[in-house]
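Lecture notes, part 5. Sequence design as translation. It can be helpful to think of inverse folding as translation between two languages: the language of shapes and the language of residues. The source text, in structure tokens, appears below.
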């Protein structure tokens, strides 16, 4: 019995080791749940096109040019092409990699009942009317009706940023993307004569 338990333990340990070494770990799902990163040690950063790329490091700083990123604890200097640390140490800017398109089936229905957004996003009114989608869950919709901010922050339109008052943490604000129209199948209207005919047939 003891020998059997040892064999089972060895097989289980081997399978775990195989999983850790050979099978890729799923990375984070981005604020827009349609995108995700392959590597778990990566950070989702928005691209100039409005979708998401992956910075090849955990808890990275997404640069304002939406092309590069820097390690946690540093600041982006896009003009110099460096990531600057308070100690004076400098590293080269990192380029983002492409993210994976993530299949999202659940959707959020907007208040007008005519449009919808992907799961994990927020419906926000647009400047031209109708609704757009903020790529964040429970987002704060900014007054300009073009941008939005994460939950727990406020929009600073003068600086085009999101501010968390408790920590003074600042992040660039997010741009909304178009919602999808809801297409409902029209109901079938029955005429009064047809209803009366069917009731007579049932009673007869």
């Amino acid at each position: 019995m003891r020998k059997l338990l040892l064999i089972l333990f060895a097989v289980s340990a081997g399978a775990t080791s195989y999983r850790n070494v050979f099978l890729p770990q799923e990375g984070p799902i981005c604020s827009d749940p349609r995108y995700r990163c392959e590597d778990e040690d990566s950070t989702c950063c928005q691209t100039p096109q409005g979708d998401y790329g992956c910075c090849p490091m955990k808890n990275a700083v997404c640069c304002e040019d939406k092309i590069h990123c820097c390690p946690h604890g540093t600041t982006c200097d896009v003009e110099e092409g460096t990531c600057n640390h308070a100690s004076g140490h400098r590293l080269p800017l990192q380029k983002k990699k492409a993210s994976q398109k993530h299949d999202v089936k659940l959707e959020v229905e907007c208040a007008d009942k005519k449009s919808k957004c992907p799961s994990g996003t927020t419906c926000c009114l647009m400047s031209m009317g109708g609704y757009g989608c903020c790529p964040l869950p429970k987002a704060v919709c900014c007054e300009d009706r073009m941008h939005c901010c994460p939950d727990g922050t406020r929009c600073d339109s003068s600086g085009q940023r999101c501010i968390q008052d408790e920590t003074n943490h600042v992040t660039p604000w997010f741009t909304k993307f178009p919602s999808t129209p809801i297409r409902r199948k029209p109901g079938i209207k029955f005429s009064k004569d047809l209803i009366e005919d069917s009731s007579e047939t049932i009673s007869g």
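The translated text above is only one of many valid answers, since several sequences can fold into similar shapes. Confidence is low (pLDDT under 50) at residues 1-25.
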